[in-house]
């Protein structure tokens, strides 16, 4: 792995930087550069704008009106109603499944990474170096290469087609451990731990009430990016789940889409796919907007991608 | 470091903190990896049962035209897609960091938003936009009275997929590069200004060298991602079943072999081989960069 700067040091330096940023002296913004970036922004927001606009259309409106403008009738609430009630409300079930997998999987992964990273950074135990080397080597192992063997293993212990099949693989985040390790090494001073020990606090208590407070920004970053990973995952749940009642949103929406495009498929399903897609992306987009402060400082750690 | 006397107990405590992660790591990553390796050395037949075949599955994969075509396709994909994506990310990061644009915060957020969109939904949306019938492409082409480009045809499918992946990951890579730019100490800029360096000179001599490690990290992750291409083509399969074949990418091929072909052992060998190819390519990327740095 390449060296990644320790986050606290980075933050200190960036606050010391004047508002002019990397340019040194204050300069006037360039019209040309701003125009180019506006063009790029339009490209990045185009599909989302299309999705918002077309989720307000009925099936006829979808096929007959211009894609980047609203149709004469406003059908959004009817579409949302259709999405939530189609097939006995299976979409609501998919939504709840996704929340379950994301909260338990990502929350668990972040917690295990924080515990493990703290243990590796602040204690010395036999085999520590070897274990670390193994974990860091695993950062390079492509996650999808493991998906099919994971399915075979899970089916041999009868866990396929249960929530555990999605949650257990989501709990392991080698990159999360790596981040929490460098974060704990930099952000938790040994003196503080020694002082707490002299006060007679137990090790677990020290972790919860002293270390965890200092690890919070790193913890939130690992949590956020693992949340995205689990919420957006498609390959693993596609393989390990058969029963639609356990599907997450990604697998369910893809199934609706196949249904809409299939020979003899129903055109009415297109509005379900579009409105269902819009509802599915709102939680994560909203979360990133609300928690900006956390991930923008946390991504300085090198960020998580799997 | 721990004081001498309680150090052994403290060592055990450290291991206990690490143990829950280790358990999940062994169950979710090491076990499947070993299982895949083991499986790939056997062949299961309906008649005759399971027999040890050594490296037979690997030798078969090494000359399997479908597997090789898939690897070639994702290699072609990454040669074009990764540089375009990283150059765009670099451009946006430099523009925002230099404060040479109005509303830098808006751009930083707007470019990043697609990262929060699931690949399935991203592909669905672009699929609608690409569509010739009721898609935006079709409508615009109609307005100009020309034939719409066929994004679902053999030639344009790969660029169409590359566009989706680029759309999704420019913002993520931009943030990594931006974070690295923010970490450059002010002294370096001051020194450059004393030397009379202009704007471009500063980008070339201060910013780009400082971005090296972050760029390398972003490149390696992108290479890994490209070789594992699955979700985008899998969703596109509904729209272009004739073009996205069952061996379009190595991962789709492994999936089809395991679930529709019942060739689990061969599929395991393909997965392992793909992982090896990925690691070798990622390693080579690292080597070339390191060598160049040694020269400079």
TrEMBL record, chain A:
Subcellular location, record wording: Cell membrane
Among InterPro entries, the record links this protein to:
MetI-like (IPR000515), MetI-like_sf (IPR035906)
For this UniProt record, the keywords arranged alphabetically read as follows: Cell membrane, Membrane, Transmembrane, Transmembrane helix, Transport
List every stretch annotated Disordered: 1-25
Task: Provide the topology term for how it sits in the membrane.
Answer: Multi-pass membrane protein
> Which part of the chain is the ABC transmembrane type-1 domain?
95-291
The regions listed as transmembrane in this protein's record are 31-53, 94-118, 130-152, 164-186, 206-228, 268-291
Pfam families from the UniProt entry = BPD_transp_1
| Domain of life according to the entry | Bacteria
The text of the family note is: Belongs to the binding-protein-dependent transport system permease family.
Protein name per the record? Carbohydrate ABC transporter permease
UniProtKB/TrEMBL annotation, chain B:
User: Does the keyword field hold rRNA processing?
Assistant: no
Q: Which UniProt keywords apply?
A: Cell membrane, Membrane, Transmembrane, Transmembrane helix, Transport
Domain ABC transmembrane type-1 spans what residues? Answer: 71-285
What are the subcellular locations of this protein? Cell membrane
Topology term for the membrane: Multi-pass membrane protein
Report if keyword Magnesium is assigned.
no
For this protein, the record's PROSITE patterns field holds: ABC_TM1
Under the heading InterPro entries, the entry gives:
ABC_transporter_permease, MetI-like, MetI-like_sf
Q: Where are the transmembrane segments?
A: 12-35, 74-94, 106-129, 156-181, 210-230, 266-285
Task: State the family named in the UniProt similarity comment for this chain.
Answer: Belongs to the binding-protein-dependent transport system permease family.
The protein's matches in PANTHER family, at most eight in alphabetical order, are given as: ABC TRANSPORTER PERMEASE PROTEIN, DIACETYLCHITOBIOSE UPTAKE SYSTEM PERMEASE PROTEIN NGCF
Protein name in UniProt = Sugar ABC transporter permease
Species for this entry: Pseudonocardia adelaidensis
Q: What is the lineage of its organism?
A: Bacteria, Bacillati, Actinomycetota, Actinomycetes, Pseudonocardiales
């Amino acid at each position: 792995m390449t060296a990644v700067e320790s986050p606290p040091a980075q933050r200190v330096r960036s606050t010391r930087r004047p508002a002019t940023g990397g340019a040194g002296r204050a300069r006037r913004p360039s019209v040309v550069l701003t125009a180019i970036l506006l063009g790029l922004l339009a490209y990045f927001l185009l599909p989302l704008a299309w999705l918002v606009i077309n989720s307000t259309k009925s099936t006829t409106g979808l096929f007959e009106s211009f894609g980047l403008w609203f149709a004469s009738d406003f059908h959004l609430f009817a579409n949302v109603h259709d999405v939530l009630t189609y097939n006995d409300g299976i979409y609501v079930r998919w939504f709840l499944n996704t929340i379950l997998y994301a909260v338990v999987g990502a929350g668990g992964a972040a917690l295990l990474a924080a515990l493990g990273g703290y243990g590796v950074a602040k204690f010395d135990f036999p085999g520590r170096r070897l274990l670390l080397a193994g974990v860091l080597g695993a950062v390079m192992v492509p996650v999808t290469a493991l998906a099919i063997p994971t399915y075979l293993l899970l089916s041999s212990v009868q866990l396929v087609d249960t929530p555990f099949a999605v949650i257990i693989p989501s709990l392991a985040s080698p990159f999360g451990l790596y981040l929490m390790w460098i974060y704990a090494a930099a952000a938790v001073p040994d003196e503080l731990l020694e002082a707490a020990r002299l006060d007679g606090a137990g090790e677990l208590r020290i972790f919860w009430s002293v270390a965890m407070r200092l690890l919070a920004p790193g913890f939130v970053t690992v949590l956020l990016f693992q949340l995205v990973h689990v919420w957006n995952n498609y390959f693993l749940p596609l393989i390990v789940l058969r029963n639609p009642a356990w599907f997450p949103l990604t697998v369910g929406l893809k199934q609706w889409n196949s249904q809409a495009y299939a020979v003899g498929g129903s055109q009415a399903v297109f509005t379900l796919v579009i409105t269902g897609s819009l509802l599915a992306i709102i939680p994560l987009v909203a979360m990133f907007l609300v928690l900006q402060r956390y991930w923008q400082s946390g991504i300085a750690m090198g960020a998580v991608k799997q | 470091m721990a004081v001498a006397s309680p150090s052994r107990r403290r060592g055990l405590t450290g291991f206990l903190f690490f143990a829950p992660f280790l358990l999940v790591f062994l169950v979710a990553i090491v076990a499947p990896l070993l299982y895949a390796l083991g499986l790939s050395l056997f062949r299961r037949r309906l008649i005759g049962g399971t027999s040890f075949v050594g490296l037979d599955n690997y030798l078969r994969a090494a000359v399997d035209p479908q597997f090789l075509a898939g690897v070639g396709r994702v290699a072609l994909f990454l040669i074009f897609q990764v540089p375009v994506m990283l150059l765009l990310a670099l451009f946006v990061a430099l523009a925002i960091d230099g404060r040479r644009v109005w509303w830098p915060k808006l751009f930083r957020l707007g470019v990043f938003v697609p990262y929060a969109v699931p690949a399935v939904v991203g592909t669905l949306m672009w699929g609608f936009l690409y569509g010739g019938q009721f898609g935006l492409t079709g409508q615009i082409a109609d307005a100009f009275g020309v034939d719409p480009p066929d994004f679902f045809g053999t030639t344009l499918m790969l660029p169409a997929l590359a566009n989706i992946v680029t759309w999704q990951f420019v913002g993520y890579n931009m943030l990594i590069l931006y974070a690295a730019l923010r970490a450059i100490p002010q002294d370096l800029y001051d020194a450059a200004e004393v030397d009379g360096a202009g704007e471009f000179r500063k980008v070339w001599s201060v910013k780009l060298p400082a971005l090296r490690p972050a760029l390398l990290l972003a490149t390696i992750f992108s290479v890994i991602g490209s070789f594992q291409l699955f979700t985008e083509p899998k969703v596109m399969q509904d729209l272009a079943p004739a073009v996205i074949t069952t061996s379009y990418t190595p991962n789709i091929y492994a999936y089809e072999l395991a679930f529709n072909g019942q060739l689990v052992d061969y599929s395991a060998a393909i997965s392992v081989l793909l992982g090896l190819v990925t690691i070798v390519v990622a390693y080579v990327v690292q080597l070339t960069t390191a060598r160049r740095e040694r020269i400079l």
